[in-house]
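Dear Dr. H.,

I hope your travels went smoothly. While you were away I took the liberty of generating a structure for the chain from your last submission, since the lab meeting agenda had it listed for discussion. I wanted you to have the full record in hand beforehand rather than looking at slides cold. The sequence, exactly as received, is reproduced here:
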Amino acid sequence: MRKVLNDPWPLIIFVIAISIRLIYIIEIRDHPFFTNPQLDSRHYDDWAWGIAQGNWIGGDKVFFASPFYAYFLAIVYSIFGHKYFVVKLIQIFLGSATWVVTYWIGKELFSKKVGIVAALIGTFYSYSIFLDGELLKNSLAAFTTTLAIYTALKAKKKDSALSWLISGILLGITALNQPNALLFIPLFAVWGTDWSRGLKGLLPVSLFVMGSVLAISPAAIRNYIVEKDVVLISYNGGINFFQGNNLESDGGMLTSKLYKLIPQREEGRTREIPEKALGRELKSSEISQYWFSLGKRFIYETPLSFIWHTIKKLLLFWNWYEVPDNIDYYFFKQFSKILSLPLPSFGFLAPLALLGLFLSIGEWRRHLLSYGIISVFMVSIVMFYVIGRYRLPIIPLLCIYAGNTLIVTYNRIRERDYKKVILIALILTGAGVVSNFKILRYPPEHSQKILGNLYMKKEMFGEAMQEYRSAIKAFPFDSSLRLSYATSLEKSGIKDDALNEYKRLLSFELDISTKAKINSAIGSIFLEKGDRVGAAKAYEEALRLDNGLPEALNNLAYLYLLEGKRLKDAETYVGKALAIEPDTPEYLDTLALILMKEGKRKEAVKLFRDAILINPKSIEIRRHLKEAEEMSQRKK
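The corresponding predicted structure, in token form, is as follows:
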């Protein structure tokens, strides 16, 4: 209690931070994105749930992605069940603690005032609030990185062996979560060594390195056991390098057409392409080397393009835009009153932080670790590709240097040193123009498509239709988007517009399976409109393209039944549908009606009853059963 009374700021910062984050996750808890993880979030969620179900070894291959967050989720799921709200409560707790640690680092590097300002900037930093509420690893990485920095600063100040060990463990955990943090280990070690003490000066830092090795070694040992391959953490480094180093890369999430960013298929594609190219099965380390070689080939063969790409990525790293790779933050802001507030953003933070770094040069020895971390982190991102959420682990440090700028400016104003105030204002204006210049911006329609898919899943067809319609304005030739839009029109009862959209889609370049499904959908609309001839032609075309579509098989059989002809073909078709999707009540109903038509009433009655057992709420099947039983009674 005395410590709190002596310095209440850690508690004040934590309460403010967790309050605003708690309001935020309560505010968005009913949104489809909250309970339906997408892309990377879904990948980690599926992986973690599999681990929590008992697969604690995590598969039979080397880790493709960094494993720490998946195991963190798995532990939470094992204790509390598959509850996203609990995960996000834990994340906002740790995310809020990050800004308390930021305050402590600010005090250590500068002053209490700088620490307070830095922590308050971070507390209200809009993108941090957003990520704390997402099922993504970056919020956790920011917490462990910040805590590792603080413990290292304290370890060097107090020459504490235990603090060095803890700092090493924390940095190792960070690397398990975001592998570019591996580069911090030699940086911390060189910075922390007291070279004036000779070999004795290496002892504390050796404990730091030991802590890092202790944290990382379980993943490395596990990788060797499952595949007899030497991979420290994960093998997606090569593909990530290639994604950011090829002629089609834009420096952000868009990459070569050779490789598409779909997390659920990402690992498969990463293996499939090099193994097909080399004609043999490859170890995970060899797969990573293959993709690294493609990226290096781009550098060697097109050096000018590489230089331009690198400059663009460097500018993008310091740019206001939070490049999305999952849910677009700017799209999501419309669903949150908290995020819609004029809160601090990277465009506000970057100019202040850059000037703050410059202003600290007079005491460069004190800030050497910060300079190293920011520089190494920036290079490690720029050499791959720039995504907004990957910047989060160094945001606390940037907040500290931004706080330094604000405190220096305030002091100059108090001292009436207006020449320096004007100079600071001019530098900030110039840096602000550069940081807030538009380099890259993705349209929100990609997120609208994802949201439309979620609405379809929840059978909110009208809402899905609106999202798809907006998305089509940006992607008019996206066949999968237009197909989803057509389906939403059909499900919403707007049959004529759906029919026109399906017909328009047939003019696109589509694979045979998709064309077959579209013809089947057209057949269903014709059938509902009473156009049996049109329906039959559409179903027959669908089955010509793909004779394994159960709905088309069943519906064509039903059409033959209505026409009272080709009953044997009808029976064959519905039999195939049931072979593909057994125990489907609608298909059993169709087959029973055909058998009734053929005079096989006993068999038909049994099938009707089987169908009702599967779907007891079907009024239509119950009516068919009643008619069949009445006919059987009359015949007796």
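Two observations you may find useful: The chain has a mean pLDDT of 86. The two ends are 91 Å apart (CA to CA).

With kind regards,
E. W.
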